[in-house]
Prior knowledge:
The structure holds two protein chains of two kinds.
Chain A: E1 8-11, H1 15-25, E2 29-32, H2 38-43, E3 51-54, E4 64-67, E5 70-74, H3 79-84, H4 86-91, H5 93-99, H6 105-110, H7 113-119, H8 125-132, E6 136-140, E7 145-149, H9 150-153, E8 154-156, E9 159-160, E10 167-174, E11 179-187, E12 194-205, E13 208-217, H10 227-233, H11 240-253, H12 264-286
Parallel strand pairs in A: 1-3, 2-3
Antiparallel strand pairs in A: 4-5, 5-10, 6-7, 6-10, 8-9, 11-12, 12-13
Chain B: E1 2-7, E2 10-15, H1 22-29, E3 48-51, E4 54-57, E5 70-72, H2 85-92, H3 102-115, H4 121-127, H5 139-159
Parallel strand pairs in B: 1-5
Antiparallel strand pairs in B: 1-2, 3-4, 3-5
Helix pairs in contact in B: 2-5, 3-5
Amino acid sequence: MQVPAVFDYERASTVEDALALLVRHGPEARLIAGGHSLLPMMKLRLARPDVVIDINELKELDYIRVEGDELAIGAMTRHATVLESPLLAQHYHIFAEAERVIADPLVRNRGTVGGSLCQADPSEDLSAVFAALRGRVMIRSATQTRTVDARGFHVGPYQTEVRDAEILTEVRVPLRPGSGSCYQKVERRAGDWSIAAAGAFVQLEGDLVVDVGIGITAVGAEQFTCSEAEEILRGSDGSESVVETAARRCGELCNPSADQRGPVDYKRHLVAVLVGRALTKSIARAKGDMS
Amino acid sequence: MRVAIKVNGQECSSEIEPRLLLVHFLRSTLGLTGTHWGCDTSNCGACTVWLDGVPVKSCTTLAAMADGHEVKTIEGLESSGVLDPVQQGFIEEHGLQCGFCTPGMMMAARALLDRNPDPDEATIREAISGNLCRCTGYENIVRAIRWAAAHQTAQEGAIA
Protein backbone atom coordinates (compact mmCIF):
# COMPACT_ATOMS: atom_id res chain seq x y z
CA MET A 1 0.00 0.00 0.00
CA GLN A 2 1.49 3.29 -1.09
CA VAL A 3 0.73 6.22 1.18
CA PRO A 4 2.36 9.64 1.35
CA ALA A 5 4.74 10.51 4.18
CA VAL A 6 3.33 12.38 7.16
CA PHE A 7 2.25 15.98 6.52
CA ASP A 8 -0.05 18.60 7.99
CA TYR A 9 -3.22 19.46 6.13
CA GLU A 10 -4.66 22.94 5.76
CA ARG A 11 -7.66 24.06 3.75
CA ALA A 12 -7.88 27.47 2.14
CA SER A 13 -11.21 29.10 1.39
CA THR A 14 -10.02 32.14 -0.58
CA VAL A 15 -6.92 33.14 -2.55
CA GLU A 16 -5.91 35.52 0.29
CA ASP A 17 -6.33 32.68 2.73
CA ALA A 18 -4.16 30.36 0.62
CA LEU A 19 -1.46 33.04 0.29
CA ALA A 20 -1.50 33.65 4.05
CA LEU A 21 -1.12 29.91 4.67
CA LEU A 22 1.81 29.74 2.22
CA VAL A 23 3.48 32.64 4.02
CA ARG A 24 2.87 31.06 7.42
CA HIS A 25 4.17 27.60 6.51
CA GLY A 26 7.11 28.58 4.33
CA PRO A 27 8.77 26.84 1.38
CA GLU A 28 8.00 23.27 2.50
CA ALA A 29 4.27 23.83 1.98
CA ARG A 30 2.65 22.72 -1.29
CA LEU A 31 -0.72 23.62 -2.77
CA ILE A 32 -2.93 20.72 -3.77
CA ALA A 33 -5.64 21.16 -6.40
CA GLY A 34 -6.75 17.99 -8.23
CA GLY A 35 -3.83 16.15 -6.71
CA HIS A 36 -3.46 13.73 -9.61
CA SER A 37 0.19 14.60 -10.14
CA LEU A 38 1.20 15.61 -6.62
CA LEU A 39 -0.26 12.65 -4.70
CA PRO A 40 1.42 9.97 -6.87
CA MET A 41 4.72 11.86 -6.42
CA MET A 42 4.14 12.00 -2.67
CA LYS A 43 3.45 8.26 -2.57
CA LEU A 44 6.77 7.67 -4.32
CA ARG A 45 8.55 10.20 -2.03
CA LEU A 46 9.49 12.27 -5.10
CA ALA A 47 7.68 15.08 -3.28
CA ARG A 48 7.59 15.32 0.49
CA PRO A 49 5.92 18.55 1.62
CA ASP A 50 5.56 19.27 5.34
CA VAL A 51 2.22 20.95 4.77
CA VAL A 52 -0.38 20.39 2.08
CA ILE A 53 -2.72 23.33 1.46
CA ASP A 54 -5.97 22.23 -0.18
CA ILE A 55 -7.26 24.88 -2.60
CA ASN A 56 -10.25 22.94 -3.95
CA GLU A 57 -12.62 25.36 -2.21
CA LEU A 58 -11.29 28.27 -4.28
CA LYS A 59 -14.34 28.50 -6.53
CA GLU A 60 -13.29 32.07 -7.34
CA LEU A 61 -10.58 30.59 -9.59
CA ASP A 62 -12.97 28.29 -11.49
CA TYR A 63 -14.11 30.25 -14.58
CA ILE A 64 -13.70 30.64 -18.33
CA ARG A 65 -14.66 34.05 -19.69
CA VAL A 66 -13.81 36.74 -22.24
CA GLU A 67 -12.14 39.81 -20.79
CA GLY A 68 -11.50 42.52 -23.36
CA ASP A 69 -9.76 40.86 -26.28
CA GLU A 70 -8.55 37.89 -24.26
CA LEU A 71 -9.85 34.58 -22.97
CA ALA A 72 -9.34 34.25 -19.22
CA ILE A 73 -9.19 30.78 -17.68
CA GLY A 74 -9.08 30.45 -13.89
CA ALA A 75 -6.41 28.19 -12.43
CA MET A 76 -8.94 25.95 -10.64
CA THR A 77 -10.88 25.21 -13.84
CA ARG A 78 -11.07 21.41 -14.16
CA HIS A 79 -9.95 19.66 -17.32
CA ALA A 80 -13.51 18.35 -17.85
CA THR A 81 -14.80 21.94 -17.86
CA VAL A 82 -12.23 23.02 -20.44
CA LEU A 83 -13.13 20.02 -22.61
CA GLU A 84 -16.80 20.93 -22.63
CA SER A 85 -16.59 24.74 -22.70
CA PRO A 86 -18.69 26.17 -25.57
CA LEU A 87 -16.84 29.48 -25.19
CA LEU A 88 -13.42 27.90 -25.73
CA ALA A 89 -14.77 25.72 -28.56
CA GLN A 90 -16.07 28.84 -30.28
CA HIS A 91 -12.61 30.42 -30.37
CA TYR A 92 -10.06 27.60 -30.36
CA HIS A 93 -10.46 23.94 -31.38
CA ILE A 94 -7.11 23.22 -29.75
CA PHE A 95 -8.51 23.20 -26.20
CA ALA A 96 -11.07 20.43 -26.59
CA GLU A 97 -8.77 18.43 -28.87
CA ALA A 98 -5.99 18.53 -26.29
CA GLU A 99 -8.27 17.87 -23.32
CA ARG A 100 -9.85 14.83 -24.99
CA VAL A 101 -6.46 13.11 -24.87
CA ILE A 102 -5.34 14.25 -21.41
CA ALA A 103 -5.46 11.27 -19.03
CA ASP A 104 -9.00 9.84 -18.76
CA PRO A 105 -12.45 11.22 -17.88
CA LEU A 106 -12.11 10.46 -14.16
CA VAL A 107 -8.76 12.20 -13.86
CA ARG A 108 -10.10 15.11 -15.93
CA ASN A 109 -12.92 15.52 -13.40
CA ARG A 110 -10.36 16.46 -10.73
CA GLY A 111 -7.28 17.77 -12.50
CA THR A 112 -7.00 21.53 -13.01
CA VAL A 113 -5.47 23.88 -15.55
CA GLY A 114 -3.26 25.55 -12.94
CA GLY A 115 -2.21 22.24 -11.46
CA SER A 116 -1.11 20.90 -14.83
CA LEU A 117 0.96 23.98 -15.60
CA CYS A 118 2.53 24.14 -12.13
CA GLN A 119 3.40 20.45 -12.18
CA ALA A 120 5.46 21.36 -15.28
CA ASP A 121 5.88 17.79 -16.44
CA PRO A 122 8.00 17.85 -19.62
CA SER A 123 5.31 15.76 -21.35
CA GLU A 124 2.34 17.83 -20.21
CA ASP A 125 -0.21 18.75 -22.90
CA LEU A 126 -1.59 22.11 -21.74
CA SER A 127 1.93 23.55 -21.55
CA ALA A 128 2.18 22.93 -25.30
CA VAL A 129 -1.29 24.41 -25.85
CA PHE A 130 -0.53 27.65 -24.01
CA ALA A 131 2.93 27.85 -25.57
CA ALA A 132 1.33 27.52 -29.03
CA LEU A 133 -1.25 30.19 -28.21
CA ARG A 134 1.35 32.44 -26.58
CA GLY A 135 -0.74 32.76 -23.45
CA ARG A 136 0.12 34.74 -20.35
CA VAL A 137 0.14 33.35 -16.84
CA MET A 138 -1.01 35.48 -13.91
CA ILE A 139 0.82 34.87 -10.63
CA ARG A 140 -0.26 36.38 -7.32
CA SER A 141 1.49 36.91 -4.03
CA ALA A 142 0.19 38.64 -0.93
CA THR A 143 1.52 41.94 -2.22
CA GLN A 144 1.39 41.87 -6.03
CA THR A 145 0.11 40.27 -9.21
CA ARG A 146 2.61 39.67 -11.98
CA THR A 147 2.34 38.26 -15.47
CA VAL A 148 4.67 35.80 -17.14
CA ASP A 149 4.56 34.67 -20.76
CA ALA A 150 3.60 31.01 -21.08
CA ARG A 151 6.81 30.62 -23.07
CA GLY A 152 8.87 31.84 -20.13
CA PHE A 153 6.90 30.03 -17.46
CA HIS A 154 8.88 26.79 -17.36
CA VAL A 155 12.27 27.14 -15.76
CA GLY A 156 13.07 23.45 -16.15
CA PRO A 157 11.48 20.03 -15.76
CA TYR A 158 8.99 20.29 -12.88
CA GLN A 159 10.12 23.87 -12.23
CA THR A 160 8.20 27.05 -12.97
CA GLU A 161 8.29 30.79 -12.43
CA VAL A 162 5.93 30.43 -9.46
CA ARG A 163 7.99 31.20 -6.36
CA ASP A 164 7.43 30.48 -2.68
CA ALA A 165 4.28 32.13 -1.34
CA GLU A 166 2.85 32.67 -4.82
CA ILE A 167 -0.15 31.18 -6.61
CA LEU A 168 -0.85 30.83 -10.31
CA THR A 169 -4.35 32.30 -10.54
CA GLU A 170 -5.22 32.59 -14.23
CA VAL A 171 -4.10 31.97 -17.78
CA ARG A 172 -4.93 34.43 -20.56
CA VAL A 173 -4.96 33.86 -24.30
CA PRO A 174 -5.46 36.56 -26.95
CA LEU A 175 -8.55 36.22 -29.14
CA ARG A 176 -7.49 35.99 -32.80
CA PRO A 177 -10.25 36.52 -35.33
CA GLY A 178 -9.67 34.62 -38.56
CA SER A 179 -7.56 31.95 -36.92
CA GLY A 180 -7.79 28.17 -36.77
CA SER A 181 -6.17 25.82 -34.27
CA CYS A 182 -5.60 22.11 -33.75
CA TYR A 183 -3.99 19.54 -31.40
CA GLN A 184 -2.51 16.22 -32.50
CA LYS A 185 -1.18 13.58 -30.12
CA VAL A 186 0.14 10.05 -30.38
CA GLU A 187 0.05 7.94 -27.23
CA ARG A 188 0.54 4.23 -26.68
CA ARG A 189 -2.81 3.67 -25.01
CA ALA A 190 -5.80 5.62 -23.70
CA GLY A 191 -4.84 8.02 -20.93
CA ASP A 192 -1.09 7.74 -21.37
CA TRP A 193 1.49 10.50 -21.69
CA SER A 194 2.36 11.49 -25.26
CA ILE A 195 5.05 9.83 -27.31
CA ALA A 196 4.86 13.25 -28.95
CA ALA A 197 2.12 15.84 -29.41
CA ALA A 198 1.81 19.09 -31.30
CA GLY A 199 -0.59 22.00 -31.16
CA ALA A 200 -0.87 24.99 -33.46
CA PHE A 201 -2.83 28.05 -34.40
CA VAL A 202 -2.65 29.94 -37.68
CA GLN A 203 -4.17 33.37 -38.24
CA LEU A 204 -4.84 34.39 -41.84
CA GLU A 205 -5.60 37.64 -43.60
CA GLY A 206 -6.73 36.54 -47.03
CA ASP A 207 -4.17 33.87 -47.90
CA LEU A 208 -1.42 35.49 -45.86
CA VAL A 209 -0.26 33.92 -42.58
CA VAL A 210 -0.15 36.94 -40.26
CA ASP A 211 0.39 35.02 -37.04
CA VAL A 212 1.22 31.45 -36.08
CA GLY A 213 2.04 29.48 -32.95
CA ILE A 214 3.44 25.98 -32.56
CA GLY A 215 3.52 23.97 -29.33
CA ILE A 216 5.28 20.63 -28.94
CA THR A 217 5.43 18.37 -25.89
CA ALA A 218 7.29 15.30 -24.64
CA VAL A 219 10.25 15.80 -26.96
CA GLY A 220 12.48 18.28 -25.14
CA ALA A 221 11.50 21.33 -27.18
CA GLU A 222 12.65 24.53 -25.51
CA GLN A 223 9.65 26.17 -23.80
CA PHE A 224 7.45 23.58 -25.57
CA THR A 225 7.77 25.37 -28.91
CA CYS A 226 9.86 26.02 -32.02
CA SER A 227 10.07 29.71 -32.93
CA GLU A 228 12.29 29.10 -35.96
CA ALA A 229 9.53 27.03 -37.59
CA GLU A 230 7.02 29.77 -36.78
CA GLU A 231 9.23 32.29 -38.58
CA ILE A 232 9.23 30.11 -41.70
CA LEU A 233 5.44 30.32 -41.80
CA ARG A 234 4.88 33.90 -40.72
CA GLY A 235 4.24 36.12 -43.73
CA SER A 236 3.99 33.14 -46.08
CA ASP A 237 0.99 31.87 -48.04
CA GLY A 238 0.79 28.78 -45.81
CA SER A 239 1.16 26.48 -48.79
CA GLU A 240 1.74 22.76 -48.43
CA SER A 241 5.47 23.08 -49.07
CA VAL A 242 5.96 25.86 -46.50
CA VAL A 243 4.04 23.83 -43.90
CA GLU A 244 6.19 20.80 -44.68
CA THR A 245 9.43 22.80 -44.33
CA ALA A 246 8.32 24.28 -41.00
CA ALA A 247 7.15 20.92 -39.68
CA ARG A 248 10.42 19.22 -40.67
CA ARG A 249 12.33 21.99 -38.87
CA CYS A 250 10.38 21.26 -35.66
CA GLY A 251 11.45 17.62 -35.92
CA GLU A 252 15.08 18.61 -36.41
CA LEU A 253 15.23 21.23 -33.66
CA CYS A 254 13.46 19.42 -30.82
CA ASN A 255 15.51 17.35 -28.44
CA PRO A 256 13.78 14.04 -27.69
CA SER A 257 15.21 11.28 -25.51
CA ALA A 258 15.15 7.61 -26.39
CA ASP A 259 12.98 5.72 -23.92
CA GLN A 260 10.38 2.97 -23.79
CA ARG A 261 8.17 5.12 -25.99
CA GLY A 262 10.61 5.04 -28.88
CA PRO A 263 14.02 5.98 -30.29
CA VAL A 264 15.09 9.54 -31.10
CA ASP A 265 14.77 9.34 -34.90
CA TYR A 266 11.22 7.99 -34.62
CA LYS A 267 10.22 10.83 -32.28
CA ARG A 268 11.72 13.47 -34.60
CA HIS A 269 9.79 11.97 -37.50
CA LEU A 270 6.63 11.88 -35.40
CA VAL A 271 7.00 15.56 -34.40
CA ALA A 272 7.32 16.56 -38.07
CA VAL A 273 4.21 14.57 -38.99
CA LEU A 274 2.13 15.88 -36.07
CA VAL A 275 3.18 19.53 -36.51
CA GLY A 276 2.40 19.22 -40.23
CA ARG A 277 -1.07 17.86 -39.51
CA ALA A 278 -1.77 20.46 -36.80
CA LEU A 279 -0.73 23.32 -39.11
CA THR A 280 -2.63 21.98 -42.11
CA LYS A 281 -5.79 21.55 -40.06
CA SER A 282 -5.36 25.00 -38.46
CA ILE A 283 -5.07 26.63 -41.88
CA ALA A 284 -8.15 24.79 -43.16
CA ARG A 285 -10.08 25.93 -40.10
CA ALA A 286 -8.89 29.50 -40.48
CA LYS A 287 -10.33 29.33 -43.98
CA GLY A 288 -13.69 28.26 -42.59
CA ASP A 289 -13.50 24.46 -42.67
CA MET A 290 -14.89 23.70 -39.20
CA SER A 291 -14.49 19.90 -39.27
CA MET B 1 -7.64 15.62 12.29
CA ARG B 2 -11.35 14.97 12.41
CA VAL B 3 -13.32 14.64 9.19
CA ALA B 4 -17.07 14.46 8.62
CA ILE B 5 -17.98 12.94 5.28
CA LYS B 6 -21.44 11.98 4.09
CA VAL B 7 -21.06 8.51 2.59
CA ASN B 8 -24.04 7.01 0.77
CA GLY B 9 -26.30 9.46 2.57
CA GLN B 10 -24.96 8.72 6.04
CA GLU B 11 -22.83 11.16 8.02
CA CYS B 12 -19.52 9.50 8.94
CA SER B 13 -17.16 11.22 11.35
CA SER B 14 -13.73 9.95 12.19
CA GLU B 15 -10.31 10.92 13.51
CA ILE B 16 -7.78 10.38 10.73
CA GLU B 17 -4.22 11.14 9.69
CA PRO B 18 -4.11 13.83 6.94
CA ARG B 19 -2.24 11.40 4.68
CA LEU B 20 -5.06 8.82 4.69
CA LEU B 21 -6.32 8.27 1.15
CA LEU B 22 -10.05 8.26 0.52
CA VAL B 23 -9.95 4.66 -0.73
CA HIS B 24 -8.45 3.49 2.57
CA PHE B 25 -10.87 5.60 4.59
CA LEU B 26 -13.76 3.87 2.83
CA ARG B 27 -12.33 0.36 3.03
CA SER B 28 -10.49 0.31 6.36
CA THR B 29 -12.19 2.94 8.48
CA LEU B 30 -15.77 2.42 7.28
CA GLY B 31 -15.49 -1.21 6.16
CA LEU B 32 -16.99 -0.40 2.76
CA THR B 33 -14.88 -2.87 0.80
CA GLY B 34 -16.91 -2.64 -2.39
CA THR B 35 -14.56 0.12 -3.53
CA HIS B 36 -11.50 -1.71 -4.76
CA TRP B 37 -7.94 -0.62 -4.41
CA GLY B 38 -6.01 -1.61 -7.52
CA CYS B 39 -3.03 0.00 -9.19
CA ASP B 40 -2.53 2.78 -6.63
CA THR B 41 -1.31 5.10 -9.43
CA SER B 42 -4.61 6.58 -10.72
CA ASN B 43 -4.60 4.36 -13.79
CA CYS B 44 -6.91 1.41 -13.24
CA GLY B 45 -10.07 3.07 -11.91
CA ALA B 46 -11.05 0.18 -9.60
CA CYS B 47 -11.26 2.74 -6.77
CA THR B 48 -13.75 5.00 -8.58
CA VAL B 49 -16.32 6.65 -6.30
CA TRP B 50 -18.35 9.82 -6.60
CA LEU B 51 -17.27 12.99 -4.84
CA ASP B 52 -20.16 15.46 -4.83
CA GLY B 53 -21.76 13.51 -7.67
CA VAL B 54 -18.65 13.40 -9.86
CA PRO B 55 -16.72 10.15 -10.41
CA VAL B 56 -13.13 10.36 -9.16
CA LYS B 57 -10.29 8.01 -8.36
CA SER B 58 -10.25 7.58 -4.58
CA CYS B 59 -6.63 6.33 -4.47
CA THR B 60 -5.60 9.81 -5.61
CA THR B 61 -7.87 11.77 -3.28
CA LEU B 62 -7.11 12.48 0.36
CA ALA B 63 -9.90 11.62 2.78
CA ALA B 64 -9.23 15.10 4.19
CA MET B 65 -10.19 16.60 0.83
CA ALA B 66 -13.62 14.98 1.16
CA ASP B 67 -14.22 16.53 4.58
CA GLY B 68 -17.60 18.26 4.50
CA HIS B 69 -18.44 16.70 1.14
CA GLU B 70 -20.56 13.80 -0.13
CA VAL B 71 -19.20 10.49 -1.32
CA LYS B 72 -21.12 7.73 -3.05
CA THR B 73 -19.71 4.22 -3.34
CA ILE B 74 -20.87 1.06 -5.07
CA GLU B 75 -22.69 0.14 -1.84
CA GLY B 76 -24.92 3.16 -2.41
CA LEU B 77 -25.86 2.33 -5.97
CA GLU B 78 -28.87 0.11 -5.31
CA SER B 79 -31.83 1.58 -3.53
CA SER B 80 -34.25 -0.22 -1.21
CA GLY B 81 -32.96 -3.59 -2.32
CA VAL B 82 -33.51 -2.87 -6.02
CA LEU B 83 -30.39 -3.03 -8.14
CA ASP B 84 -29.51 -0.09 -10.32
CA PRO B 85 -30.09 -0.91 -14.03
CA VAL B 86 -26.30 -0.73 -14.44
CA GLN B 87 -25.86 -3.49 -11.86
CA GLN B 88 -28.63 -5.53 -13.44
CA GLY B 89 -27.04 -5.00 -16.86
CA PHE B 90 -23.75 -6.49 -15.68
CA ILE B 91 -25.72 -9.59 -14.56
CA GLU B 92 -27.76 -9.84 -17.76
CA GLU B 93 -24.86 -9.36 -20.16
CA HIS B 94 -22.17 -11.15 -18.15
CA GLY B 95 -20.27 -7.89 -17.74
CA LEU B 96 -17.72 -9.33 -15.32
CA GLN B 97 -15.46 -12.26 -14.72
CA CYS B 98 -13.22 -11.73 -11.69
CA GLY B 99 -15.23 -8.68 -10.62
CA PHE B 100 -12.29 -6.58 -9.48
CA CYS B 101 -12.87 -3.65 -11.85
CA THR B 102 -16.66 -3.96 -11.62
CA PRO B 103 -17.45 -1.43 -8.86
CA GLY B 104 -15.41 1.28 -10.57
CA MET B 105 -16.91 0.42 -13.94
CA MET B 106 -20.41 0.69 -12.50
CA MET B 107 -19.76 4.06 -10.84
CA ALA B 108 -18.34 5.45 -14.10
CA ALA B 109 -21.24 3.96 -16.08
CA ARG B 110 -23.91 5.34 -13.76
CA ALA B 111 -22.36 8.82 -14.02
CA LEU B 112 -22.39 8.55 -17.81
CA LEU B 113 -26.03 7.47 -17.98
CA ASP B 114 -27.10 10.26 -15.63
CA ARG B 115 -25.65 12.77 -18.09
CA ASN B 116 -26.43 10.91 -21.30
CA PRO B 117 -29.25 8.35 -21.03
CA ASP B 118 -28.69 6.92 -24.51
CA PRO B 119 -24.95 6.89 -25.27
CA ASP B 120 -23.54 5.25 -28.39
CA GLU B 121 -20.79 2.65 -28.13
CA ALA B 122 -17.95 5.13 -28.69
CA THR B 123 -19.27 7.36 -25.90
CA ILE B 124 -19.48 4.38 -23.53
CA ARG B 125 -15.93 3.30 -24.35
CA GLU B 126 -14.69 6.85 -23.78
CA ALA B 127 -16.53 7.10 -20.45
CA ILE B 128 -14.91 3.90 -19.11
CA SER B 129 -11.48 4.60 -20.61
CA GLY B 130 -10.20 5.38 -17.12
CA ASN B 131 -11.31 1.95 -15.87
CA LEU B 132 -9.13 -0.99 -16.82
CA CYS B 133 -10.41 -4.58 -17.07
CA ARG B 134 -8.03 -7.48 -17.42
CA CYS B 135 -10.67 -10.20 -18.01
CA THR B 136 -13.42 -9.48 -20.48
CA GLY B 137 -11.89 -7.18 -23.06
CA TYR B 138 -14.73 -4.71 -22.49
CA GLU B 139 -17.20 -6.23 -25.00
CA ASN B 140 -19.58 -7.49 -22.34
CA ILE B 141 -19.08 -4.43 -20.18
CA VAL B 142 -20.14 -2.17 -23.05
CA ARG B 143 -23.12 -4.45 -23.69
CA ALA B 144 -24.04 -4.29 -20.00
CA ILE B 145 -24.07 -0.49 -20.04
CA ARG B 146 -26.13 -0.49 -23.24
CA TRP B 147 -28.54 -2.91 -21.55
CA ALA B 148 -28.83 -0.49 -18.64
CA ALA B 149 -29.48 2.43 -20.97
CA ALA B 150 -32.21 0.52 -22.81
CA HIS B 151 -33.89 -0.72 -19.64
CA GLN B 152 -33.87 2.52 -17.72
CA THR B 153 -35.38 4.21 -20.76
CA ALA B 154 -38.04 1.49 -20.79
CA GLN B 155 -38.62 1.96 -17.04
CA GLU B 156 -38.92 5.72 -17.38
CA GLY B 157 -41.20 5.23 -20.39
CA ALA B 158 -43.44 2.93 -18.36
CA ILE B 159 -43.68 5.47 -15.53
CA ALA B 160 -44.43 8.30 -17.96
